[in-house]
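Researcher: Structure prediction, please.
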Amino acid sequence: MAIEFREVSLDPLAGLSARAPDGAVIGILGERGAGQTRLLHLAAGLEQPTSGTVAADEPSRLLGPSDSWNLSPVRTLLLDHAFSQMGALARLRAAAGLERLRRQGTAILLVSQEQELLRELCDEIWWLDQGRLAARGEPLEVLERYRRQLTLQIRQWGQDASQPLTPSFRRGDGRARLLGLETLDSQGRPAMVWHSGEPVAVRVRVRFEQPVEDPVVGIMIRTRIGMEVFGTNTGLEGIPLGPCPAGETLAVTFSFLCQLCPQQYTLTAASHDPDGVWHDWMEDALAFSVTDSRYTAGVVNLRAAVAVERGRVGV
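Model: Predicted structure follows.
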């Protein structure tokens, strides 16, 4: 037994019970203020719980992000975001050193927000949520639960948050003016965060300052580095809008499935003539994000189906 927490409380930790055996790397995951650093301080004996007990083998060593890496033999190694300032080569050396200590029986508690790092190095992950142990167990399973919870929280924040239109540039002859641009979730509510796979929409509001015979309203989605992902307009979709007299206002909604991978995107909108003469063009006017409960690489989520056939060659 290297470290055992028995009904330990010390704000924000509340009634935490968990055991880290010898020769195990335990990842500690949670949002800021969930109690990760306090847990390490308790394990190191730097603080004492208000209730409960901590049983830990001695000696122990606590390393933070600015400390030099001391990987000499020790019973308990406590790492508080110690990888955060490392380059690639230093990380490889540190990971090799941790493996050597683990094989020698050292119990290692590793606090980090880097999910890939935790997945690669840890035998088990403890997820702290507001001072309580929300989950513990096999890294892939705990990380999946954590991502699901984080996705829900991000989506809730995206529904409550709002942002002004901040185009990188705006141009046009002024015959129409874009009044608003919104990203909508599956319930038709304004949302700065979409979930990959859900029905979503973009709403463009435009007012015509002068009569326009045949206006076209369109949108373009780009990655944050400017790669065009998807664009369409009312002309391409076969939806005539005109003629529109001066003073008329239109709300044009483009609805589709969000088949995007998790990352940040920008949205451009425009009103123009069929030949491309702009009335009003707002470049990268709105930023939004896409989340998912699982990792996908790239830009487009094709949601592949996988089939496996087993057999021997020549049979």
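Model: The first helix runs from residue 36 to 44.
Researcher: Thanks, that helps.
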